Amino acid sequence: MRRLIPATLLIGGAAGVQARPARRISAPLIGETIVRGQWAKAENRADCAPLGLVSDGRAQGVARAANFSGGWAVAFDLPGMRSAYGFAGTGLLPDDDQPDSVQRERLTKQWPSTRDLRKLPAPAFAGYGLMGAKPYPAANPSGKGLESLAYLRIGGQRCTYNVWSRLSRAHLESLLDNLRILR
To answer: Is residue 13 part of a domain?
Structure first.
């Protein structure tokens, strides 16, 4: 969760000490420091804004830089599970220039599940399921312990983002709902 830390500055003057409210300082988003460093070196930085998480669904993984050809990525490791979840701005593909309506149709056809993402610049939407664009099995519809993956499009951005979770479908959906573009 993003925290705002109020502060007060004291200024000395001829009439004594006066209190003046200072601007609020907000805490960084989860993964922000690593993403900014990776994004600054990425080939796609002009077309694929960096992201951070308001919440990681209480998974509390340890963030680290991850390799993503032509793009940037941050992965989160848990004890005994490398790359348990994460997100990436992928290298650009020729189809990334297609209009948003074509991108939505592509993801809807490719993935078994879709959702709109209202906390990101519109139109923002994702197609998701198991790795390989497969549906969740009837025996494990929550996807617990399976490799969930989402392809994500954000209004004003040219790349297709990847978001993944090896924890569960609900965790992947939580990540999607908690992503924000970094300013």
So the answer is: no
